[in-house]
What does this fold into?
Amino acid sequence: MCTFAHMKQIIVIGGGAAGFFAAIRCAELDRGAQVIIIERGKDVLGKVKISGGGRCNVTHACFEPKELVKFYPRGSKELLGPFHRFACGDTMAWFEQRGVDTKVEADGRVFPVSDNSQTIIDALTHAAQAAGVRVLTQQRVEKIVQPDSPGAPWLVQCENKVWQPHKLLIATGSNPKIWDQLRALGHQIVPPVPSLFTFHIKDPRIAGLEGISTPLAQVCIPALKLKAEGPLLITHWGLSGPGILRLSAWGARLLAESNYRFTLEVNWLNKNTDQVKDLLDTAKREWARKLVQAHPPVDLPARLWRQLVIAAGIPAELRWADVSKLQIHELMLQLTNCTFLVKGKSAFKEEFVTAGGIHLSEVDFKSFESKLLPGLHFAGEVLDIDAITGGFNFQAAWTGGWIAGEAMAQ
It folds into this structure.
């Protein structure tokens, strides 16, 4: 019989989604191994707890890997192969096999039917317990030392304990201290910058409209050649919503270099100028006696329409019949080419997502193992992989954890 002292030991640093998934998969496949999660905080799965407003956006209902990778500004090429092995449908099946029913919402996001992130946490913690995974909290890693010879163990030094695992998984997310240690071991770290954030804008056209949203807009930063589409949300600070978040994700590095100061163009209707001019000309003909401010011919919230009408120089008492060609042109520009000066950013709710991390060229994505240091694996946001909002960042964590867990069990 294998004694405890001679058991194969696998350490997972980081008690988040990727770490738990890897530990569970590894322990289920290798019942003879001692699999231990060490977490620096008091609690595990903190990001799972708060994600999706406490509902946990587990994944997204995108089931074709070639389509799925399009949601990842960084990591799309590297994730294509892994997504053929474990992707969104597999995640839904994994949780459903463990008693968690899921649902797909209109925008494709997947949540537990309970609408409670605790359901996901319970499923993960119960699966870990059933597989024999030990979970230790308040274990801050102070030093990682690579094996001094092939087959020798790693050394993971915590404040009151030194571990000597045969294999090691880093799933610590955006942790600068861990990145520093990996850099000291020879890995290249791509400097982190925020990836999902809202834009700070102070402008009379959106002042006082907090909470108003538009169904489909196009947003563009001409100077950086960035463009995205999606719903927009007006906030106390400026603009947010899926359209802005897509722009922030794809432009993460360029926007950081600009110090988050740039000119943003908004096409509120996602229509071209000819289409909008036709709508305005038709309103002028058919609604001649009606007030412009009170009768929008486009699908926009009434209060936003009024502010844009004012910005176009059209008085409150003006009727459609009396609108000049110049005013029609100005209104068309407000609707299709509304220019704002952005001065700063804010984090998007609880989505603390960064671009940056371990350089992807140094990772074997068949096993999520370091190409430089055999026996060292990675999963989650410790890698230079990130996605737009919608469950895609969690999916990268589940996929990486699953594959790394399998590889460590071999």
In short: The two ends are 20 Å apart (CA to CA). The CA atoms of residues 212 and 317 lie 24 Å apart. Residues 1-5 have pLDDT under 50 and may be disordered.
